[in-house]
Amino acid sequence: MKTTLIIAAAMAALVSAAPAVAQEYTKGTVKEVKADQEKVTVIHEELKNLDMPAMTMVFTVADPAMLDGMAEGDAIEFVADRVRGKLTITEVK
Questions:
Q1: What are the angstrom distances between the C-alpha of 63 and each of 22, 33, 46, 88?
Q2: Contact of 50 with 81, CB cutoff 8 Å
Q3: Non-local CB neighbours of 25 within 8 Å, separated by 6+ positions
Q4: How far is CA 70 from CA 18, 26, 53, 64, in A?
Q5: What percent of the chain has pLDDT over 90?
Q6: So what's the pLDDT on residue 23?
Q7: pTM of the model
C-alpha cells in the first residue's frame, strides 16, 4: 500500500512538471466576417490537430472580440479546436 502511494505521488509530480503543449498556429486568409453571428470564414492551410486538409470553412469564435478589426482579405494565424461540437477559433494573432 505504501509503495502504491509513493508511485502515485511520483507520477503526479511528473505530470505537473511536464511542459504545457504549445498550440500550433495555422495560417489563413479571412474570406468573410459575420460579427452578428460570431462567425468567420477562413481559407486555411492544413489543420493538423483536427486532421483536416487545407480548405475554406466557417468557424465560430471563442471570443467575439476576436472579430474586432478583422476584415475580408486579412492574413491571420489562428488556433482552432472543437468546442462543444463546433469548429471554433480559440486564438488569433
A1: 20, 14, 23, 10
A2: yes
A3: 77, 78, 79, 91, 93
A4: 35, 16, 24, 11
A5: 72
A6: 78
A7: 0.76
